[in-house]
Design goal:
globular; alpha/beta; 8-stranded mixed beta sheet; 35% helix; 6 helices; disordered C terminus
Length: 202
């Protein structure tokens, strides 16, 4: 049986009051037999990492954390948990950024990290606070692939951004979450030029 990897990501500035909601999503996904992918940053990514590690070895095995560089370049508050995650059988996917690289090189590695995460996942659950360009980039990449995208907007539904041709619909299983509903059929290209390549349920 192929185990689905679902990306649980979000804003670095996501308030700590949202950690419980992130933990519930992670627990629900693991309970459904999925594994979790994330980005290894502070904020939402850190809350997701904490939740996976707290669930133990069975949740960590098959889960993957994608980094722009190595563990030594991750935020200090994340490093100890990343090591523990790895010890429990989780996989760390290191990116191309090296110590001392330029700002532009590091930013490029961040985008590459997000693309790699989406390419490995079956869908994305994002917790968004503030502008969060990186999180919306990840959501857009998933939408381009026809993957399901679920967003928890910390500032309310008015802060939701369009991902092309479609609309946001409330999700009953997770109060406060919205799922992107594309208006184009699978395999077709919308008026924005976004090609929906595949379809997979979270």
């Amino acid at each position: 049986m192929v185990v689905k990897l679902v990306a649980v990501v979000g804003s670095r500035v996501l308030p700590a009051s949202w950690s419980g909601a992130v933990s519930k999503v992670v627990s629900d996904l693991v309970g459904r037999g999925c594994r979790v992918g994330s980005g290894g940053a502070v904020g939402a990514d850190l809350f997701a990492l904490q939740a996976v590690v707290s669930l133990g070895r069975s949740a960590c095995q098959g889960s993957r954390i994608f980094l722009p560089g190595g563990i030594d370049q991750a935020p200090r508050s994340c490093r100890e948990l990343l090591v523990k995650f790895q010890q429990l059988g989780g996989e760390i996917v290191s990116g191309s950024a090296v110590p001392g690289c330029s700002c532009s090189e590091f930013i490029s590695s961040l985008f590459a990290r997000s693309r790699a995460l989406v390419a490995s996942a079956s869908g994305v659950v994002a917790f968004v606070s503030g502008r969060s360009k990186g999180t919306w980039f990840t959501c857009q990449e998933a939408a381009r692939r026809g993957q399901p995208v679920v967003v928890f907007p910390a500032s309310g539904p008015r802060s939701l951004q369009s991902l092309g041709c479609g609309s946001w619909a409330p999700l009953s299983c997770w109060p406060g979450a919205y799922r992107w509903a594309p208006s184009v059929a699978v395999g077709q290209r919308c008026r924005h030029g976004i090609s929906v390549q595949c379809c997979a349920g979270v």
